[in-house]
Design brief:
single chain, alpha/beta, 9-stranded mixed β-sheet, 5-stranded parallel β-sheet, 12 helices, 27 strands
């Protein structure tokens, strides 16, 4: 069952209007007048039926821009940062695990997956959610299967919302046609399209409404609260009797609906719950919950001055990091979005333009930082299996292996693995491209007893390979290593040149 929410639905009869609302009144600095003039000019290039919504969107960008001007570094005052106090931290093992009688609560829930990203980290075009991750199934396939199973098993009606970006919206709409016979109600909506600005003069790269896509960017998932409210989806969910929403990244295969967490949130009237998990070496740069004056917040590495980065990455001060699995009370969310009282910390993302080499700035927010806007919010320490992201082909290697099976769209850990920890896998540049990765592995190796794997250089794997312990495979420049069919590598270092020639 499909429904899509179009981002711009204003009447074509509306007349052009300059940017003369509260934003222009707020810009008192005369040095910023060229910026305002440039945005007014940009707005004048939009089609008549888009003029008002486009102007409103540029105003929302300028609100962020003014915050940036007031604090260009967007760095946090380190003296005010402390790790969360014990009364703000919950542990999954301590919440009630026997909530099967509460399955009726699923009818109060909606699921929102963040679907704005492309598969660029694996050199894929199009939405990342369309990448096949296991057994020929994509991220979206697994998400829909999970919710279908929950709805069917518990006679529930959990809708699925996808927040797209202008990068993923068109292709996602095409892909969603395959679910037209699904029992899951699927809604899509778009996050904002904001202009990249030049670092030297803060003017937008875009000179017209229909400028090349490289002139625009989706401003981070902190934008979702405003978009849910502005596009009417919050009101729609509330009218359907939905009271809570579970938000997660579409590429986190561990982010499934958990009735135990939902029951705890409802029973304890928690307005905003952020799932966190214990840091490993791979997570030390991830966003971490912190506390200031008794209120929780989310701290990102880019908000920390260089002299404090080691402190930020230390597991002694900050033991946990944000999984971006978030549970929110919809009624309270509606109150706060209507009152414009949700404040997400500004993230200044400096980049080099991919085509021109020009230094540019993107102003972004993260949805987790809204935790500071909700009184009595909590963080919940969850098992690692609730955080199984696929950010690159090294992650994909783990998911495609025999460490996991799939049942009803859910990844099930293989009980035959002795340890619950996930192996550390580092695949070199030859495996960065999804299609090169697929070509280099004829089939996924068996890794139930693997601890560490490092592969560097031109390496291919035959079928039925088993890896155990710590395995290092290095093909120097100009060499190639072909791991033969049926090989068992147990705590082994392989280097040099090993070619298998076909007869």
């Amino acid at each position: 069952m499909l429904n899509s929410q179009k981002p711009y639905l204003k009447s074509p009869k509306q007349q052009p209007s300059p940017l003369v609302t509260k934003i222009s009144l707020d810009i008192k600095d005369a040095s910023l007048k060229p910026v305002l003039d440039e945005f007014n000019q940009l707005i004048s290039t939009s089609p008549q039926n888009m003029r008002i919504p486009f102007r409103d969107e540029m105003e929302r960008f300028l609100v962020m821009f003014l915050d940036f001007i007031k604090n260009k570094s967007a760095k946090i005052d380190w003296d005010k940062v402390s790790s969360p106090s014990p009364n703000n931290i919950l542990h999954y093992c301590q919440i009630n695990q026997n909530n099967t009688s509460n399955n009726h609560l699923l009818n109060k829930l909606a699921v929102l997956k963040l679907n704005g990203g492309l598969g660029t980290t694996m050199c894929c075009k199009g939405p990342k959610s369309a990448i096949e991750v296991k057994d020929g199934l994509t991220f979206l396939d697994l998400t829909v299967q999970q919710i279908e199973y929950q709805n069917k098993t518990h006679k529930a009606n959990i809708p699925l919302l996808l927040m797209n970006s202008f990068n993923t919206d068109k292709e996602t709409a095409r892909i969603l046609k395959k679910y037209s016979d699904s029992s899951v109600e699927i809604r899509t909506f778009n996050q904002s399209r904001f202009p990249r600005i030049r670092k030297n003069d803060f003017l937008p790269l875009a000179r017209s409404f229909d400028a090349d896509s490289s002139c625009w960017y989706p401003p981070g998932h902190g934008n979702l609260y405003e978009c849910l409210n502005r596009q009417g989806l919050l009101d729609e969910l509330l009218s359907q009797g939905k009271e809570y929403i579970f938000i997660a990244n579409v590429d986190n295969l561990g982010a499934k609906v958990d009735i135990n967490i939902l029951s705890h949130v409802i029973d304890n009237k928690i307005p905003f719950l952020m799932e966190v998990t214990e840091k490993t070496k791979a997570d030390i740069k991830g966003g971490t919950p912190y506390e200031h004056n008794g209120m929780l917040g989310l701290l990102e590495a880019c908000q920390v001055d260089k002299e404090n980065l080691n402190d930020f990455m230390s597991v002694k001060k900050f033991k946990y990091f944000n999984t971006n699995n978030i549970w929110i009370n919809l009624k309270i969310l509606k109150q706060k979005t209507s009152a414009e009282s949700i404040k997400c910390d500004l993230i200044v993302n400096e980049k080099i333009h991919e085509n021109t080499g020009e230094k540019i700035i993107q102003l972004e927010t993260a949805c987790g930082s809204a935790i500071s806007s909700f009184e009595k919010s909590k963080v919940l320490v969850v098992p690692r299996e609730r955080f199984l992201p696929v950010k690159n082909c090294s992650d994909l290697f783990i998911i495609r292996s025999d460490l996991f099976d799939i049942k009803n769209g859910e990844l099930i850990p293989n009980p035959a693995r002795m340890f619950k920890t996930i192996p550390t896998v580092k695949l070199g540049p030859y495996f960065k491209n999804f299609f090169d990765y697929s070509r280099r592995f004829i089939s996924s190796p068996r890794i139930l007893e693997l601890d560490h794997l490092i592969v560097s250089g031109n390496v291919t794997f035959g079928p039925d390979v088993t890896l155990k312990g710590t395995v290092v495979i290095i093909a120097p420049e100009g060499c190639q290593i072909d791991i033969p069919h049926g090989s068992i590598l147990d705590s082994t270092i392989v280097t040099g040149n090993l070619r298998l020639l076909e007869n």
